[in-house]
Specification:
The protein contains 11 helices and 13 strands. By secondary structure, the chain is of the alpha+beta class. It is globular, with a radius of gyration of 21 Å. The structure holds alpha-D-galactopyranose.
């Protein structure tokens, strides 16, 4: 994205020039709803990102302007100063979480914009948090490392935005590397870069362009179900702190102690953690057909057991199957947003034509298509 408009707006609002930073959205090949259960994820940062220009303003308030929304907001940085526009809470939250960790943050001016589609499961909010986190850490020399910045973004979601998310999105946005996925163990926080260049295949996102209401409360409810089941298992196996520590036998042993719905959620998570490990094995062997089958398995589980899909996403997944697409599934938190598809080059054009036409006919919405390009994480791009 060009930053010219951001720079012009900044100059016209504040009569000066600051530094420009960016942080990307993400994809995730497989491993969904596993992060807050201590499992693995396999995300990559993408070429869609948030951008901000920022400069200390010499007084104790933040003045921020959201270019895409043409909205401005001014706020102080004490807990009582929480601003009301939802976008401003991400910035406020990042500042507050830094202050809670001992940072001193003098006032600053900022203009931001981005091309991560909102509500599409590509983590626009994590991109915004990481962009401001990285920028403030840099201009005020706060000394947080990238892990702490990711945790600051995650804590912002928990404490200022009401979403009890895992660490995947903020981690991917902070640690992304061009051409590589990241295999993150969300329990130990160990990670490795996995070069990703599936020869003969493309990875493409199809955006349903729907976001269903109450996604965040439904998300939090999923997390609670997992925690309830962990508590039941821990009565017999005190070493189990997260679903990652449990296996199917342990789960089966508490079947009559937990609610049927909670049981089904936990079953999905335990299966999904294994699916990711199998997919990673297949990836190292260049066996994309197996990776694709695992992706379909994830979709099935997310739709039937975790129940975070929706008719629009299921429809796109069915079309992918009908077209012989190698792998397809709902990506991210669910309840709308995108499917991620692993498609043979030779099938790509026919699949996109069929999927967009059929989807529009059925739902009267034109889906959006994004080819996935894996890029770097948060960074300063202009002085
Ligand atoms: C959202 C959350 C992540 C993760 C995914 C599902 O993107 O922010 O932490 O839980 O959903 O995998």
């Amino acid at each position: 994205m060009e930053t010219t408009q951001i720079r012009e707006k900044f100059k016209s609002l504040y009569g000066a020039a600051g530094n420009v930073y960016t942080a990307p959205g993400r994809i995730n090949i497989i491993g969904e709803h596993t992060d807050y259960n201590g499992g693995f994820v396999l995300p990559g940062a993408i070429d869609k990102a948030m951008y901000c220009e920022i400069k200390p303003n010499g007084y104790n308030k933040v003045r921020a302007y959201a270019l895409d929304l043409e909205e401005s907001c001014e706020f102080g940085l004490e807990e009582k100063d929480m601003p009301s526009p939802s976008w401003s809470r991400y910035i406020f939250g990042v500042c507050r979480e830094m202050i809670k960790r001992g940072a001193v943050i003098p006032g600053f001016d900022a203009v931001f914009a981005g091309d991560v589609p909102l509500g599409a499961g590509m983590s626009s909010s994590a991109a915004l948090e990481s962009c401001f986190g990285f920028a403030l850490n840099d201009i005020y020399k706060l000394g947080f490392d990238r892990f702490e910045l990711a945790k600051i973004g995650q804590a912002t979601e928990h404490n200022y935005c009401g979403v009890k998310c895992g660490i995947m999105d903020q981690f991917a946005s902070c640690f992304g590397k061009e051409g590589s996925l990241m295999r993150l163990d969300c329990r130990s926080l160990e990670y490795e870069y996995v070069p990703f260049d599936p020869k003969g295949y493309k990875v493409v996102l199809l955006n349903t362009c729907v976001t269903h209401e109450l996604a965040s409360s439904a998300y939090n409810k999923r997390r609670e179900s997992c925690e309830t089941v962990v508590a039941a298992i821990a009565k017999k196996h005190p070493e189990v702190k997260l679903l990652r520590d449990a296996n199917m036998d342990m789960l089966k042993a508490v079947k009559t102690d937990v609610d049927a719905e909670d049981y089904m959620r936990a079953e999905f998570v335990i299966e999904e953690i294994q699916r990711l490990l199998d997919a990673c094995d297949a990836l190292t062997k260049g066996d994309y057909e197996t990776v694709g089958q695992k992706m379909y398995g994830t979709h099935e589980g997310l739709s039937k057991k975790y129940e975070v899909s929706c008719p629009e996403l299921d429809f796109l997944n069915d079309i992918a199957k009908q077209c012989g697409v190698t792998g397809s599934r709902v990506m991210g938190g669910g309840f709308g947003g995108c499917t991620i598809n692993l498609v043979k080059d030779s099938l790509y054009d026919a699949f996109i034509a069929k999927a967009t036409e059929a989807y529009e006919k059925k739902f009267s919405i034109k889906p959006k298509v994004y080819d996935v390009i894996i890029k770097d994480g948060a960074r300063r791009i202009e002085d």
